[in-house]
Amino acid sequence: MSEHPPEDFKNMEDLLRKIMSQAFGQASARPGIIGVNIIMAGNLPPGFPGSGGISPGHDIEHPPIEIVQYENYLYATCELKGLFDEHVSVAISDNILHIIGFDGFIRYKSSVSLPPVIESSCRRSFQNGVLELEYQLKPQINVNNIPDEEKNEADLKTDKE
User: Fold this and answer.
1) pTM for this entry
2) Dihedral of CA 31/32/37/40: which sign?
3) Does a structural domain hold residue 157?
4) Cα separation of 23 and 161, whole Å?
5) Domain count, the chain
6) How far is CA 113 from CA 65, 92, 96, 132, in A?
7) Structural domain harbouring 116
8) pLDDT tens for each residue of 58-97
9) pLDDT at 161 > cutoff 60
10) Is residue 22 part of a domain?
11) What is the C-alpha radius of gyration for the chain, rounded to an integer number of angstroms?
12) Is residue 100 situated within a structural domain?
């Protein structure tokens, strides 16, 4: 590779200088350019436009969601590095917990199946990039504890409907 850049790069430098002087004039405080990456077409790494991947800053991570059941409660924990609570959305649909986090650069999306929970019972905390959710489990009807007479009445009601 040559020690001298091709003439096209010299023209690019002149163009950048012209843009900077038009944007900021002769002001004493002007931004500087520390570095520029130029990527030539072909064999682009994943994540770059045109590479077939997702554009930079929009790569999706799928962090694991840890689920723990204790007594009548379900606890869900998910690490979302670099985000704040206002960047995180939580939803439950068809007993599937969905966690989505996006701040313009970092993007997370994870889902996990849950047993039936009372959605309105959610207690949420977010500290140091860790989301913690607490849900009350829906009471489970234990069919074995229902007397036979009530089971038969319940069967008759469902047959009529």
Assistant:
1) 0.54
2) positive
3) no
4) 74
5) 1
6) 10, 9, 4, 16
7) 60-137
8) 457 889 999 999 999 999 999 999 899 999 999 888 899 9
9) no
10) no
11) 28
12) yes
